[in-house]
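Researcher: First entry.
Model:
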Amino acid sequence: MAEIQFKRVKTETAGEFEVYIQGNIEAGRFICLTYHDIGLNHTAFVKFLGDASVKYLTSKVGFVHINAPGQEPNAEDLPDKYNYPSMQQLADEIPQILTELGIPDDKQILGFGEGAGANILVRYADKSKRQVIGLVLLECTMSTASFAEWGQEKVASWNLSHHGMNAAAEKYILWHHLGNYGKDKLHVVKNYHENLYKHMNPKNLAAFINAFCSRDDISNRVKQIRCPVLLVTGDKSPHAKDVDKIFQLLPDKKLSSIMKAEDVGGDIKEEDPKKLGESFQYFLQGLGLIADVPMPRLGRSASLGETSREKRSSSMSEMDHTL
């Protein structure tokens, strides 16, 4: 796996961001920009890229992993007077972050986001249409929080702020990522438990959850997406219906696809990284971004292989299926 470099970037509006660079971001015509969900950080993407199905990609593709303020492992408390950025403000900071990293304006960007991070990248893509050439969106939501979700998030945020990491907050975060999981997901639950209690700053996490809870509707932005999109969800995900709605609003379904993975809750990276890795590679090939890579077979989902640039117009819409 490629060496990971740490960078601290300070922006005018939102303050400091911790960014991790994996692979060579100077070579090639594009980079992959990742943005994480609540309760996670860049390590979730680094772990995924270490899976056997995709680990070679870091020698061919440069990845830029952005951590939302205060969400990096073992973070110090954000200042008491710090005003946590909104989802839109987090998206608006991305161009300055890339500039500070020395990434030129003509470098093409492939966005790879999950949950809150996917929402942020849709907003970024809306304002950077010439630069963003594709989006991979895991468990993306476009609507405002429902009353029930808003209540759950507010309770979780309050508990985190006043009691630190606790069982009630953990329960909400596990539901957000895994839905109503069974015993077969206990190994994933264990990983989340360890990360939340050992590495996440609860006060900072509460602030990020509040920002996500207060998000505005981005359906009009989804309607304006012009680049190819790969939407990913699980058939047991609490966000599956939201992902379906996003796909229906995309203006050109021949350029985009939706993957709904069987027996997967809301975190395919942890639950079935091979399945995500295969789909991710086919999507990159369909964009003409990678070619000389070993492509594993998808078994039941072999139709995903027909995503080359020549076949995209006839096959990309056929990727709307359940694996």
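Researcher: Second entry.
Model:
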Amino acid sequence: MEEIQDILKITFKSLKKKDADLKNVLDTRCQKCCRNLVLEQNFKREPPSDPPSEYLSPPSSWSVYSHSNYPGLLVVKGAFSPDGLTDLLSKLLLDYQVQDTCGADVRSNLSCLGITCPESKSYWSTTDDQEHLLIDKLRWVSNGYHFDWTKREYRTGFKSQFPDDLADIGYSVVKSLRVSSDVKPDSAIMNFYHPGDTLSFHTDELEWDLSKPLVSISLGLPGILCVGGTTKSDPPISLLLTHGDIIILSGPSRLAYHAVPKVFTSYHVRTCEHEVVSSSDLKSEEDHNVGSDVPGWISQFVDGLSSDRLEKIDKSLSAEELKERIRKFLPRTRFNISIRQVEKYE
């Protein structure tokens, strides 16, 4: 009985190891690895009557996976259009988090510690000792309703303006998958992870309307997400998440325990039961620069950023200097945007 009750801890510790055995991590890119994950054909349908978000591809092209032991858990691949994924990542890097430096009410782990940027600078600037970038110390940013980590609660009026595009994405995904009759996203927590960072098992249970699903978007480096049940004795499923993947926690899985035990050091990860790879050997030959673990899309993304836009973000840096900092930051960072509805609307 003790071993069963500790199953979450055992799973977390085993996957956190540098040389973790990945044979039980499900990777939707490999059909032999996707045991027990079902491709939901009934989700391949036309968009809902409402106009879909401009960030998303037609829902008929999405691949949506479910698991019979975890009802309400959905894994969505291919939901973003190429331009939509690029636009979302650029806003995450340049808009959502730097609003904090412009005097807005956006909150972050840095602002909670009283760490702010000098005027006309951003988190892409260096710290006082000139040895690190402030962005390297950023761990989370919240938009819309803010969670009070001291009192562990949401409060009426304790919020900032919620970005329309995030509300659009959350609404369109939920409506397209028919997992809720109505949803009004009003909050998002954006996490910044680096290899070695983890997030312990927890539940998101303090929103005022728990009938509305969580929409979780993965960007950047691959990571492992573990999702269990509503008790600590329920064994978890382990999923490999890559750039652009979406996880839905709805219905019976809305209050499921979940965790991130590992962020990989490379974009190129393969894991399946018929060809087991350790987490310290993650290279593949697909989509990467010669002699590098960095995927080609990163250079294309950085080169495509507008110089005029970059110069407005941080006046202490030239556009080329900021591009170079972003180019070095992306290969070592995983991002997660968790969109939710906090308020219970009539």
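Model: Note on the second entry: DSSP finds eight helices and 15 strands in the chain.
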